[in-house]
Design a protein that fits this description.
Helix content: 25-40%
Order of helices and strands: HEHHHEHEHEEEEEHEHEHEEEEHEHHHE
CATH class: Alpha Beta
Mean pLDDT: 95
Structural class: alpha/beta
Strand content: 15-25%
Distance between the termini: 38 Å
Number of strands: 16
Radius of gyration: 21 Å
CATH topology: Rossmann fold
Shape: globular
Number of domains: 1
Largest sheet: 8 strands, mixed
CATH architecture: 3-Layer(aba) Sandwich
Length: about 375
């Protein structure tokens, strides 16, 4: 463990120990190797011990990370404008938010929409019972407008699908280039501890990476490590299957394909977060730390087009917020609050903070939409 990391409490260590033992037993009684995407799914989403289900503190200063809605209400205010324009083009539209976290974005967004006399039915798709309970407590005053789902509706709908920092937590396949082969990376048990291990080359993975190399125009070098997440494409396809008219608005840290698989980005993007400390060891405290990979927005765009959706917008979070007028919405009537609000907004928009790393992609079907506020970067994807 890095020397500056705080140790989990006894309850946390017990959770992590139980999950580690469960995964270790599964590996030892199986083939001796577990694909990394399977490992990532278990440590994040195990119904009892997984990171998003075990009751550990995740959000805010006492947790592992802070999301944009927690930093400033201006985030929801800015998102409200394109959402209102989208909803105006539909009869009886709905909003479906995936993975609503603390419920802060839903709370702020519903408040803004209500103030503008826009009151669509708001659904939250949340698989974590623990997070759902927190959201229900926070949104109790809005209970007549909000309903929780455990899966995507099977019947067609018109509306907006909202996903803020959701796609980065989808399980990813990790791989390494060994000569002309692409080998999956997974997990083995080494001296009683979970550790990285290479698997055998697989046709499906090799074909996916060869397709990327063909589009790039070069072969990834020997020893190159990175990730790919087909589950994100499947997520877009599943929504497109039931969204007859509407839009998907996703905000996350990510890159275009050419940026993601640049020859110099040879260690991938996988990162772990524990008590606001970022590191790259996914086997440290399983179940107690967030594990994520950056989003390949080019792959999302291709999946959308194949599913019959249009890429209606793609820009950086900083460009979007500044050109949505977020700075002009700061309230300077209370100097102390104004300073804090300005600091939070700086974190959201500055290139060295969240402004460049986070992108906003708008996918649509059967709508006439203006580009998102800010520079239009669709030509890059």
């Amino acid at each position: 463990m890095p020397i500056d990391f705080p140790a989990p409490n006894l309850h946390g260590r017990d959770i992590s120990r139980k999950l580690s033992e469960r995964i270790t037993q599964e590996i030892l009684t199986g083939s001796g190797w577990m694909p990394f995407d399977q490992y990532m799914h278990q440590v994040l989403y195990d119904p009892e011990l997984g990171y998003y289900h075990n009751g550990s503190q995740k959000f805010g200063s006492a947790g592992d990370f802070i999301t944009a809605p927690e930093l400033s209400g201006l985030f929801a205010q800015s998102l409200a404008e394109p959402i209102i324009n989208i909803l105006a083009q539909m009869d009886d539209p709905v909003i479906i938010e995936f993975g609503a976290g603390t419920g802060r974005l839903a709370e702020d967004l519903i408040s803004v929409l209500n103030a503008r006399s826009v009151s669509p039915r708001y659904y939250i798709l949340e698989t974590s019972a623990e997070l759902r309970a927190r959201q229900q407590s926070r949104l109790s005053a809005m209970s007549t407008q909000v309903e929780w789902l455990e899966q995507l509706p099977t019947e067609s709908f018109h509306g907006v699908v909202l996903a803020n920092e959701v796609l980065d937590a989808f399980p990813a396949i990790c791989f390494i280039k060994q000569g002309h082969e692409t080998r999956p990376l997974g997990v083995q048990v080494e001296k009683g501890e979970l550790a990285w291990a290479e698997g055998n080359a697989e046709n499906t993975l090799s074909e996916m990476i060869e397709a990327i190399e063909s589009r790039l125009g070069y072969v990834l070098p020997d020893g190159y490590r990175s990730e790919i997440s087909p589950t994100r494409n499947a997520w877009i396809t599943s929504i497109a299957g039931v969204m007859k008219k509407g839009a998907i608005l996703t905000i996350d840290y990510g890159l275009t394909e050419r940026e993601y698989y640049h020859e110099q980005r040879n260690s991938g993007t996988l990162a772990c977060y524990f008590r606001h400390r970022m590191h790259h060891d996914p086997f440290l405290w399983p179940g107690l730390q967030d594990i994520s990979t950056w989003v390949d927005f080019s792959a999302c765009a291709r999946a959308a087009k194949e599913a019959g959706l249009s890429v209606a917008g793609y820009t950086t979070q900083g460009q979007f917020l500044v050109n949505s007028g977020a700075i002009g919405k700061l309230d300077f009537t209370d100097s102390a609050d104004a300073i804090q609000a300005a600091q939070s907004l700086k974190t959201l928009v500055l290139p060295g903070e969240m402004g460049e790393r986070f992108k906003i992609m708008l996918l649509s079907r059967n709508l006439h939409l203006a580009p998102l506020p800010g520079r239009d970067f669709r030509s890059r994807i």
